[in-house]
Design goal:
Helices cover 5% and strands 33% of the residues. It contains one helix and twelve strands, in the order αββββββββββββ. The termini are far apart.
């Protein structure tokens, strides 16, 4: 009687980019489990831009570092001179003239689902877990809760 191939196919599927996962161990090779269905990673590919410092920006802008999608570096962003120039979840840093995230200890800030306020750092930190049941309707991915299952993705280099 021939050996069924279905279990082998399931095992191999876990080794490919885009496969659902709950931990890096379920992804093969150089892949990692990206929380919240974050999609495919960048591998060694990045779009980089660097304004260097604020002197390279126009008079109403400042140079700010970023990592976003497959891009990283620094770019010119509008300067702020008070909180009215920032989003409601941000405050203006008076020295850098950059809008920064308000600390979650501020009563006006509410952390998103699957996160909690870390009073020590003032930032919203992911809820920790060892299984999906601790995530109350979410998924445990690499020890933190997320709204969607993880996805095997090329590791960011």
């Amino acid at each position: 009687m021939p050996t069924p191939l279905f279990p082998l196919a399931l095992l191999l599927a876990a080794c490919f980019a885009g496969a659902p996962c709950g931990s890096n161990a379920q992804c093969g090779g150089d892949m990692q489990c990206v929380p919240g269905g974050g999609g495919y990673g960048c591998g060694n590919y990045f779009e980089e831009y660097d304004c260097g410092d604020t002197a390279a920006c126009d008079s109403d802008s400042v140079c700010q570092g970023y990592t976003e999608g497959c891009g990283r570096g620094s770019r010119c962003v509008p300067a702020c001179w008070g909180d009215d120039g920032c989003a409601s979840t941000e405050t203006c840093d008076p020295d850098a003239h950059l809008c920064i995230t308000r600390p979650c200890t501020d009563p006006a800030v509410t952390c998103e689902q699957f996160t909690h306020c870390d009073d020590g750092t003032g930032t919203c930190a992911p809820d920790e877990c060892i299984g999906n049941v601790q995530c109350h309707g979410g998924y445990c991915v690499n020890g933190t809760c997320a709204g969607e299952p993880g996805t095997c993705s090329m590791a960011r280099q």
